[in-house]
Amino acid sequence: MALMNGLVDSDFKRYLTRKNLPTLAAAFSKAHDYIKSEELMKTSSRHVVAGKGQSQYEGTSSGGNRPKPPAPGRGGGSRQDSRPTRLPMKYSTYTPLNTPRAAIYSVNQNGEDWSRPIPMKDNIEELIRKGHLTQYRLNTSRNQQPPLSTGRVDVITGGPIHGGTISGAKKHLAEHRHLVCALDVENRPRPASIPQVVFTEEDARGVVFPHDDPLVLITKINGADIKRVLVDGGSSANVLFVQAFNEMNIGRQYLKPVSYPVIGFNGSTVRPEGSVVLPVKLGDGPQARDVMAEFLVVDVKSAYNAIIGRPIIHDMQVVVSTYYLAIAYVSNLGAVEKVYGGQVMSKLVT
Predict the structure, then answer these.
(1) Omega of the bond prior to 117 within 30 degrees of 0, cis?
(2) Does an H or E element contain 81, and which?
(3) How many angstroms separate the CA atoms of 18 and 35, rounded?
(4) N or C: which end of the chain has fewer CB within 10 A?
């Protein structure tokens, strides 16, 4: 119903009133077909008009010109009168998009100005040219990786943060239920082998006890040393805050659209700016471990620059000890290595 209310009077809207499409995805697909058809008809009509421009007048014996009468159509009327009128296109070229226009409208109908009675295609193009909806621009260089960042990202002020996603949690729960119900203990997937991990008094050297400090690291993300990275096993997503993202000079053209909100940020719901896949490195030399990790870029104030959530913790086979303010991980060579957090840095955060 919301999709029907947002459409201007057109062939597509009349088509929807006649057909009962089973899903919203089917409606989006049909809307995309109609848009492509209109674009093709518009291009064809330009060539026809250009070819007939000089034949709209007949020559007379006196050298004067008079317009040709319109060709009669069925019922005695002209063909032009029998055709439905179409709203003229506002722009000669349109921005390539990575999402069907009907889907863009459905997601953003409450956040943008859709009130004027102009075609949805023109309305979306106008918003993009004003700087809105830029996440839907088609990135022609799909396989191109973001350029490596340099330098160091320092402090960003704000409050503490924790996050998770609704859709991700539901999907993970459904998969877990399937494994528990369908497979017995012996046939369930086994974890990758990991050497024995032990924390000793040596790992507590330099830590002031007692404490309840969070584990905060300096981590190399996309080639840059990022300070104040929180290791949070309670977060179902890796998070990169927008201030740090901007400082890394990656560029918003590398962000992929994210349609789901993230919950838990200061007790509110936040829609990410997008997601980006970046290289993450722990340790140096033979102790290094490298992975490619997806980060949600979120525009909220935080005391941290980034959050390492369960995806990176699991990919790197990390064992976290907030008591020792350290993590143990399996290096690229298969050995157990450790990285230690900064207690002074964590106290400045809390």
Answers:
(1) no
(2) helix 79-82
(3) 18
(4) N
* pLDDT (tens digit per residue) in 282-330: 999 999 999 999 999 999 888 899 999 999 999 999 999 999 999 999 9
Q: Residue 197 corresponds to which tokens in the numbers above?
A: 């991990």
State how far the Cα of 272 lies from the Cα of 245, in Å rounded to an integer. Answer: 12
Output the CA–CA distances (angstroms, integers) from residue 259 to 1, 106, 262, 270, in the order listed: 20, 11, 10, 11
Q: Report whether 93 contacts 135 (CB < 8 A).
A: no
Strand partners, 274: 297
Domain boundaries, the chain: 1-43+85-138, 152-184+202-349
234: which 2 tokens? 């309670």
pTM tops 0.70, yes or no:
no
Q: In what order do the strands lie in the sheet with 319-321?
A: 319-321, 326-330, 336-340
> Which two tokens mark 202?
């040596």
Residues in the chain, pLDDT under 50: 49, 53-64, 73, 75-79, 155-165
> 152-184+202-349 belongs to which homologous superfamily?
Acid Proteases (2.40.70.10)
As a whole number of angstroms, the distance between CA 113 and CA 101 comes to 15
Contacts of 327 (CB under 8 A, 6+ apart): 215, 217, 231, 282, 318, 319, 320, 321, 338, 339, 341
Name the residue with tokens 């722990």: 282
Three-state DSSP state, 100? coil
How far apart are the C-alpha atoms of 107 and 120, rounded to whole Å? 13
Give the tokens for residue 148. 């490596």
> Do residues 94 and 123 make contact, with C-beta atoms less than 8 angstroms apart?
no
Contact call for residues 193 and 335 (beta carbons, < 8 A): no
